Amino acid sequence: MGRYVLRRLLQLIPVFLGTTFLIYALVWAIPQDPFAGKCGQRPCDPAYIAEMSQKLNLNDPLLVQYFKYLGNLVTGDFGTTFNGVSVGEQIATSWPITLKMGIIALIIEAIIGITAGILTGLRKQGFLDNLVLVSTLFLISLPVFVTGFVLRLYLGPQGFDFMDTSVSSDPTIGELILPGFVLGSLSMAYVARLTRSSIVENRRTDYVRTAIAKGQPQTRVVGIHLLRNSLIPVITFLGTDLGGLMGGAIVTEGVFNINGIGGLIFRGIQEKEGIMVTGIVTLLVLVYLLASLLVDLLYAVLDPRIRYE
Amino acid sequence: MEFRTRDGVAKVLNGVSYHVSAGETLAVLGESGSGKSVTAQTIMGILDMPPAFITKGSIKFRGEDLLTQTADERREVRGEGIAMIFQDALSALNPVFTVGFQIEEQLKVRRGMSKADARKRAVELLDQVKIPNAKGRVSDYPHQFSGGMRQRAMIAMSLALDPELLIADEPTTALDVTVQAQIMDLLAEIQKERDMGMILITHDLGVVADVADRISVMYAGRIVEHADVYELFRAPGHPYTESLLESLPRLDLKGQELKTIKGLPPSLTNIPPGCPFNPRCPRVFDRCVSEVPAVHNLGMGRTSRCHIAEEVVARG
């Protein structure tokens, strides 16, 4: 197991280098003057251009630029934008908010999705099953920003005044529950369906029949024998979804005016702040890679048949 | 016993009746789809209901009718009173738990044993079914066992609660011939040691001859013949059994074409009128098509559901 982990960690290095280089190249290879429109109506001062080009290593070949950037990154320096704002500081304030929201979304989608999946998978057909099927179909077909706006308006003070839907600049966990729910709603529907079909598939297996024939109580037959096998694909989905949630936060953050990395990356792209975009996307790649590593490890724990020697 | 499906009602079992005493082995013999496994699963109470419906009948164990018991009472009987082993041990064992876990689970949950005691007992049980290095293998997963070892582990698990009756549903079908013999020997030995009743479900006449005391032959959800193993092989009392025996390869008839039973067993949603075997029976006559044969008593506990049972048995 230890060697398997080590090998997986080593595999992360080329993947990380490859993806970040691609992002860097894509962002900086835009066939346009990076200084266009940076200094209002007038063209930029040559001295400023020279200083910034020096700072961002724009005069070096792309590969050299990339490695210099990477070198700074390793020392924790994310660089500064054209207006001299530190990217690192921006990320440090926004990152925890998005991460918090992503984890809340993950927890909500796991709990509600898996519960709904188990309940409907165990007794196929009937009212509950149809309810879940229809509501998940509804969630899947609705764009997240629609779900977001509708919930925000109807639950908030202008609607049924059920709760305060506004989110402060330094949000608490309570404030992030509704945005987290919206963010996770799509995946929640997938989790519910995945769990349901997995349970349906496994409940007729021979080992479940054996557990029943052994006279094990129903709770153990389902909770231990059936669930352990059925949750393997669900866990995989949830793990890789964490990365997806981070990227998807851009819409939810927009709807709820949350000061997270979604907004940061959106402004970065709009204002052509390449250094901001690369910084954040690099971080997202890292989260994604670590999450999928975690899934692989968890997978080996859950299913002994795929353990690496 | 019926299965109510979209394609109609399948009368899976019809007037099936047998009994097993302690220390005795009853073989239930039949082709695929004859209802032998369903009978066993009905006894265990592990059929899904619906689609399965028990329209009438009784299953008596220790003098009590299992069918009138509550679900919890029946669950108590499973494993403790009646245990079952299945055909394919690889799929019957849970792939994500160790063999030890699956045995210990029974001891811990059903007997309230401590973890350490359960582990000790699990090793003992694996040892009893002759798994080499039981202590080392107890924490292995089913996929790390060979086919024969898996079936042994399955047997060990079924013995965990010292059942009085063991139902073995084609325990050797998935194994190769040499391992088959070892598993059958093991089952016979364990049964003798524990004076346990055993219902052996099989389609293999060879297996039956070695181990069974009595045989029930099933066809289309009914028992067509019931006899002592020796009597049955000496003189079958039903044309179906007769055909089965004739389809066995024989050393003295080497080189000749093997006899087979023509046609296929009937669909259980559409059993032919009269005797269900009549379309394939070499001795068919007009009564067979119109009248369901009654149970003919042939003496010494032998029965046959054939209009001309006496004639058939006399021929042998």
From TrEMBL, chain A:
The chain crosses the membrane at residues 12-30, 97-119, 131-156, 176-194, 275-302. One of its GO terms (cellular component) is plasma membrane. SUPFAM superfamilies: MetI-like. Residues 95-299 form the ABC transmembrane type-1 domain. GO terms for biological process: transmembrane transport. It is a multi-pass membrane protein. PANTHER family: DIPEPTIDE TRANSPORT SYSTEM PERMEASE PROTEIN DPPB-RELATED (PTHR43163), DIPEPTIDE-TRANSPORT INTEGRAL MEMBRANE PROTEIN ABC TRANSPORTER DPPB-RELATED (PTHR43163:SF7). Belongs to the binding-protein-dependent transport system permease family. This is ABC transporter permease. The lineage of its organism: Bacteria, Bacillati, Actinomycetota, Actinomycetes, Pseudonocardiales.
